[in-house]
Amino acid sequence: MIEVSGFSKRYGRHEAVGNLSFQVPGGMVFGLLGSNGAGKTTTIRALVGLTRPTAGTVRVQGFDVWREPVKAKAAFGYIPDRPYLYGKLTARELLRFVAQLYSVQSAEAEIERWLTFFRLGDFGNELLETYSHGMRQKVAIICALLPDPPVLIVDEPMVGLDPHAARQVRELLRNHADRGRAVLLTTHSLPVAEAVCDRLVVLDRGRVLGQGTMDELRAHTGTEAGGVHGDSLERIFFRLLEEEQAEEARRAVGVTG
Ligand SMILES: Nc1ncnc2c1ncn2[C@@H]1O[C@H](COP(=O)(O)OP(=O)(O)OP(=O)(O)O)[C@@H](O)[C@H]1O
């Protein structure tokens, strides 16, 4: 369970995220969408304890990430958009290290199962510094999933993955939630969001433009279902941005007129 309540983050005078609230219970894939600079990564960084909220609270499995960081961090797996891996370790060495940290049961068998799943078995004894971007991304995904965490937090999961791996990851995220875990992801891919997310929040410049299930967002924006896969979320997304721009224009006229 993820609980974000009244979360705001300021950098100097610039408000990156303002008064954001949402919950992600077990069983749900929740998508954080928005244009560049909308505040998605800032929200994720607060949730994983990398940036401190200016206001509000962020909780994972009931633990405040800033007050009880060790308990909160034991409860989630995190897949960053640019993963840092220890280049002088092999994939197997890194995964054994992670397995020990999280006391993973049957660790060797699990590590081999994951390496095989991502077709990395033959490279498992190579140094990570020799891995391609996509191979590193796969290892970062295995690191996050190896402990089978109750909460999974994912920043741009598909970047750098080939189409086969991207489909595997979509299915993994969905399966993780279907086994009762909470999954939060950010993505620029509207088809991915539409395919795997149960609920969505659309951010723009740190503010919420819309929030709900696809059906709720369709009803809110007056856009209809159907069309090419991913197309219907695209229409919702652009309608929300248009509404925001129209509102801004009205405010500007009000100020100057
Ligand atoms: N460390 C920082 N110092 C100052 N400003 C920052 C910092 N980190 C983020 N920001 C600002 O906060 C805003 C939100 O950035 P954030 O990285 O959360 O956006 P995003 O939605 O993840 O964007 P993108 O899709 O481009 O990755 C931006 O205006 C950015 O310039």
UniProtKB/TrEMBL annotation:
Keywords: ATP-binding, Nucleotide-binding, Transport. SUPFAM superfamilies: P-loop containing nucleoside triphosphate hydrolases. The keyword Transport applies. InterPro entries: AAA+_ATPase, ABC_transporter-like_ATP-bd, ABC_transporter-like_CS, ABC_Transporter_VariousFunc, P-loop_NTPase. GO terms for molecular function: ATP binding. Residues 2-230 form the ABC transporter domain. The keyword ATP-binding applies. Gene3D superfamilies: P-loop containing nucleotide triphosphate hydrolases. Pfam families: ABC_tran. Transmembrane segments: none annotated. This is ABC transporter ATP-binding protein. It comes from Deinococcus navajonensis. The lineage of its organism: Bacteria, Thermotogati, Deinococcota, Deinococci, Deinococcales.
